[in-house]
Specification:
6 strands; about 30% strand; 3 helices; alpha+beta
Length: about 160
């Protein structure tokens, strides 16, 4: 397998994956705009630290909360429908404010109450998803070009 064919295949697969992820992120950010506010109670909250490429760490809030509706009691664990990355100081401030037993506002899907989040998606989250989608299209196009170039060079060898 030539390096162009291999590289083109990898780039194309990466492009498809980026496009799929962008669609999911855009969808999540968009559908949550119509969700309704509900009062909930914090069950637990912790911070997870993840290494990043360009900075020291990325922090994520892991939260569990419960809320009661006429259909019963529901539990949620989603912090954000958009980008949920936090700085260290943001994560500490959130954790300090979210003690077990504290009443908070969450947003839930009126059609499926088991889907909820503390924060809805924002236009910034949708813009990020669109940029990610265009990056995926770029990877896909470049991969296709590499594959085409590799297949073109194989056909040229047959003619000689």
């Amino acid at each position: 397998m030539s390096s162009d064919l291999y590289g083109g295949t990898v780039m194309s697969i990466a492009g498809v994956c980026l496009c799929a992820l962008a669609i999911v992120r855009y969808w999540d950010a968009t559908i949550s705009e119509n969700w309704v506010e509900t009062r909930a109670e914090v069950v637990s909250a912790t911070i997870e630290s993840e290494p990043r490429v360009r900075s020291e760490h990325n922090y994520k809030l892991r939260i569990r909360y419960v809320f009661d509706l006429s259909q019963g009691r529901f539990e949620g664990d989603r912090f954000s429908m958009g980008n949920d990355a936090l700085t260290a100081s943001e994560a500490r401030a959130m954790l300090d404010a979210l003690r077990p037993g504290k009443a908070i506002t969450v947003f839930r899907d009126p059609q499926a109450p088991n889907r909820s989040a503390m924060l809805r998606g924002t236009p910034k989250d949708r813009r990020g998803a669109v940029i990610m989608g265009w990056a995926g299209v770029g990877f896909l196009a470049f991969g296709a070009w590499l594959i085409r170039r590799a297949s073109g060079s194989r056909h040229a060898d047959r003619l000689l």
